[in-house]
Amino acid sequence: MQRPNDTSTIERSVKVETHRQPMPPRERLERIFAVEHLDALYGGKPAIKDVSMDVYKNLVTAIIGPSGCGKSTFIRCLNRMNDLIPSFSQTGSIRYHGQDITDPGVDPVAVRRNIGMVFQRPNPFPKSIQDNVAWGLKVLGLKDNLDERVERALTQAALWDEVKDRLKASALSLSGGQQQRLCIARAIAVEPDVVLMDEPASALDPIATAAIEQLMHSLKSEYTFVIVTHNMQQAARVADMTAFFSISRGEEGQRWGELVEYDATEKIFTAPSDKRTEDYVTGRFG
Ligand SMILES: Nc1ncnc2c1ncn2[C@@H]1O[C@H](COP(=O)(O)OP(=O)(O)OP(=O)(O)O)[C@@H](O)[C@H]1O
Ligand SMILES: [Mg+2]
Questions:
Q1: Does residue 79 line the site of ligand 1, with CB under 6 A?
Q2: Residue-range domain boundaries for the chain
């Protein structure tokens, strides 16, 4: 007697459910960032060179590429987070709603008020769950309806039901996945325009990962997300647009990251224009 065909089961079990809707034509999309000829350097050595790309409003944009190609450097440029690194410098322009945020006259704190960030490792403050979410609101002096705003952010971050009876408990008593959703709630409580996420799910289990992907999908009518991920399936599931960065090598052993290809996620994963993208998304890289 023939054994049942295992392959089809495996194929079925890894089939990814996508949250994406068909992309509207690019000319109908609103540009939120226009990045032009961006070079980012540490100690005078380029980490990324000549990156030009637009980021569109109310979409999820994924940044993918091998380790060290400058993904984190790039998204930290989008909210002036690299300013905190003394050896950092940059050239080129990043217009955010038309204003060049690389201009030294622009207040980085005001930039970060509109462009929030969630990091790879959850970093809640050693305070209560409630105080973590209310923190940014208090800094901004938004003291009206504080409880309602906290509830709204926790609900949007798909955490409210799990914490509503323990809001005064320490944030550090939550699980890793809950802490990461708390950090998302903290980032969205101040109602930013853009949320940047640097590998937000890399330390999470598949259930917490799915919850984060689901919440990006359900919140993108209100926010614009830019997410760095090493997980190809995650990019394919959540992102409308995908940018593939790779490492270029100079004659004297210098290495820097560059943007190889940027297009609708469907195109990047099914019919990329560049051989390097194809090798990476099909796992032939390296
Ligand atoms: N604070 C820093 N000081 C000096 N060099 C840095 C700093 N941060 C990053 N770099 C360098 O810049 C380059 C790009 O690093 P980056 O962290 O942006 O890459 P990445 O694509 O996010 O990598 P990974 O996938 O491993 O997170 C690397 O060569 C790295 O060593
Ligand atoms: Mg990184």
A1: no
A2: 28-281
Pocket test for ligand 1, best of 71, 256, 280 (most atoms within 8 A of CB): 71
Does residue 85 line the site of ligand 1, with CB under 6 A? yes
Q: Encode pLDDT of 131-147 as tens digits.
A: 999 999 988 888 889 99
Domain 28-281 classified CATH 3.40.50.300?
yes
87: number of Cβ within 10 Å: 10
Q: Which residue has the higher pLDDT, 285 or 161?
A: 161
pTM: 0.90
11 pLDDT exceeds 60?
A: no
Return the pLDDT at 19. 63
